[in-house]
Amino acid sequence: MSLDGSVVVLTGSAGALGSALARRFAEVGCAVVLSDVNRSALDTQVAGLGKEFPSVEVTSLSVDVGDPQQMENLIQHAQDAFGRVDVMINNAGVLNSNGRIHNLPPEDWQKTIHVNLMGAVNGIASAVRSMRPRGVGSIINTASAAGLTAWPYASAYGATKAAVIHLTRIAAVEYARDGIRVNCVCPGTFRSAIHDGLPEEAMEAMAVKHPLGLGSPADLTDAYLYLAGDGSKWTTGSALVVDGGYSAP
Ligand SMILES: NC(=O)c1ccc[n+]([C@@H]2O[C@H](COP(=O)([O-])OP(=O)(O)OC[C@H]3O[C@@H](n4cnc5c(N)ncnc54)[C@H](O)[C@@H]3O)[C@@H](O)[C@H]2O)c1
Known about the structure:
249 residues, alpha/beta, Rossmann fold, 7 helices, binds nicotinamide-adenine-dinucleotide
């Protein structure tokens, strides 16, 4: 079934993957509700998308995904603009600073949990409040291959992404009878601002571990289209790995 006319809410929309997702869902005719904590990047994104896809309906709200009230406001904003939410993509994420467990400051853990885990929790909770009365919806969380395999120096990141994968499974079971499917995507590494500050050698070492090399955001977007639409109507609780073969060995 076509996604044309579906209402898609997306967090972390101004980042590398978020921007690619916004463009791809706009391209197939969805109305998009964009959100990011970075308000100026969000404004630039909305202006650009409006120019590129003049017929697509776009609205936005700057939110911190770790704040439950702000996520409620985001879903209410979508409801007010389009009357419903068909697809919720919990995509905002941060990487902890580069260091082993004993060197990671508690604030680093708190921030990573706040954005990566609580962002997905809040996104699910707010989206299902809107989706349950209609008995239909698809929620997609951005997890990571780092939630499936051990990435040294990224303990908070990997632990929160593993938690997102398990949260996805639990939510899938909790909301299946409400007609809501919940899945996640586990990307391998693609270059984005998340890696700012990482030495180039670290990126090169990551590239070597991906049999197909590092990916790009565009390599991931169709996995989200698949999970959003009816082509995946019997798929829930899944962790779709799109990682250039990183986790295969
Ligand atoms: N880049 C990779 O190699 C990679 C690999 C696997 C998974 N991921 C995941 O993909 C998703 C997108 O990351 P990206 O690589 O595009 O990075 P990015 O930094 O380009 O985008 C992340 C976006 O999230 C936003 N954000 C951060 N904190 C937020 C908050 N509290 N509330 C709302 N928005 C917030 C940022 O402003 C940014 O626009 C993340 O969940 C990330 O963990 C990335």
